[in-house]
Write a structure and sequence with these properties.
Shape: globular
CATH topology of the largest domain: Spore Coat Polysaccharide Biosynthesis Protein SpsA, Chain A
Strand content: 25-35%
CATH class of the largest domain: Alpha Beta
Order of helices and strands: HEHEEEHEEEEEEHEHEHEEHEEEEEEHH
CATH architecture of the largest domain: Alpha-Beta Complex
Radius of gyration: 22 Å
Helix content: 10-25%
Number of domains: 2
Distance between the termini: 47 Å
Largest sheet: 9 strands, mixed
Number of strands: 20
Structural class: alpha/beta
């Protein structure tokens, strides 16, 4: 019987590993369509010292894929002239794009959606085979994040929390060029997560954050990947939970899946958690670890149901969709994980936030107060 149990465990392990099929995104640069690179809209005096290192000047399209009815092109923002040039020199199944019905949507990023499944495109002398969407996660409960260089043991804990407390059936992690461990190492260690994991390698520059009061006008990747996971993995149907690695959603004896409604954005506010790193995994039993004066921006989950293509999913909200707010959910934002992520020099240096001595940090006098925090929005159950 013990040997049979071991065999079952090995079988389950290889079932999980089988799900780590990496999707190779179809990257098209401006040089591929003979068009000049992207020019930042941010004035030079509002750019960080390392802005040019992280800003994506060259990428025209992040990815192209299709389902049984449509073809999706997801991209950073580009000027109309670049899209005109792309359409002019590209053949879609050997036909010009004018042969098809297509819709163009623009927000912080852009989507060109062709109302027909295109199997190949040709740009000058190069042909690209257009893959069919994964689609395995249609009508599933999916946890999604874009991450880089986070502690793998914490990622496992984070993922299993959502499996245990929010009924997550599948997890999609987009890895944005981690360099403290290999993609293979990350892939192999994530088998400790309790459910299926789909790992994507996202080989693009993340971009830059706001600085000195500038607009958030240079961080395209995160917004584009919301649309990517929405269509490529969920086929625009299913529950999508948006959570950064440093965020965990707690509920007042309720889960996200109890509250989502079809094509309505479910929003809930966040709280900074100021606890020592070794205590992070015990926070959920002790609300006293939460600073009562730090309550801020929304995060969200959504039940996609053939959701209108004009809807854009964003970091803290969504555009062109009905919204509802719940006081029965709060996402806890772990300060020490967030600080490591932002101040390591891999994301941005001298940006919106700045290095401090974490050992001397006083949670009663937080510097992270740029979110318009208001005590009156704090749920009573979280204060008890």
């Amino acid at each position: 019987m013990q040997n049979l149990s071991k065999i079952n465990d090995i079988y389950k392990f290889f079932l999980k590993i089988a799900d780590f099929k990496v999707h190779k995104m179809i990257k098209i640069n401006f040089s591929d369509i003979d068009y000049p690179n992207r020019i930042p809209t941010r004035p030079i005096d509002l750019q960080q010292e390392n802005f040019t290192q992280y800003f994506d000047y060259t990428t025209f399209i992040y990815d192209i894929f299709r389902n049984d009815k449509k073809t999706y092109i997801i991209s950073p923002p580009s000027v109309n002239e670049a899209w005109s040039k792309f359409k002019e020199i590209t053949l879609f199944d050997d036909k010009p794009i004018s042969s098809y019905i297509s819709n163009f949507y623009t927000n912080k990023i852009q989507k060109l959606i062709i109302e027909k499944p295109i199997e190949k495109i040709r740009i000058k002398d190069r042909t690209y085979e257009i893959p069919k969407i994964n689609g395995k996660l249609e009508n599933k409960i999916v946890l999604y994040t874009l991450q880089k260089n986070n502690d793998i043991d914490w990622i496992i804990y984070w993922a299993n929390w959502y499996v245990d407390h929010h009924n997550v059936t599948d997890i999609v992690i987009y890895d944005n060029n981690s360099d403290i461990y290999s993609f293979s190492e990350l892939k192999n260690k994530l088998n400790k997560i309790k459910t299926k994991v789909y790992l994507e390698s996202v080989d693009y520059l993340y971009g830059m954050f706001a600085y000195k009061g500038s607009k958030w006008d240079a961080d395209f990747l995160q917004y584009a990947m919301f649309e990517h996971v929405r269509y490529y993995y969920l086929n625009n149907n299913g529950i999508l939970i948006n959570s950064d690695i440093d965020e965990i959603v707690v509920g007042n004896n309720i889960s996200i899946t109890d509250l989502v409604e079809e094509n309505v954005l479910l929003s809930y506010h966040g709280k900074w958690v100021y606890t020592k790193e070794e205590k992070l995994k015990k926070y959920h039993d002790d609300h006293n670890l939460i600073d009562q004066n730090s309550f801020y921006n929304n995060k969200w989950s959504i039940l996609l149901k053939n959701t209108d293509d004009a809807v854009f999913l964003r970091v803290h909200h969504a555009d062109n969709i009905k919204k509802k707010y719940s006081k029965d959910l709060v996402f806890l934002h772990h300060f020490f994980i967030n600080a490591k992520m932002h101040w390591s020099g891999r994301r941005y240096e001298g940006g919106l936030l700045f290095p401090i001595n974490l050992e001397c940090y006083d949670p009663k006098n937080p510097i992270l107060s740029s979110y318009g925090e208001t005590k009156d929005k704090i749920p009573d159950w979280l204060l008890n």
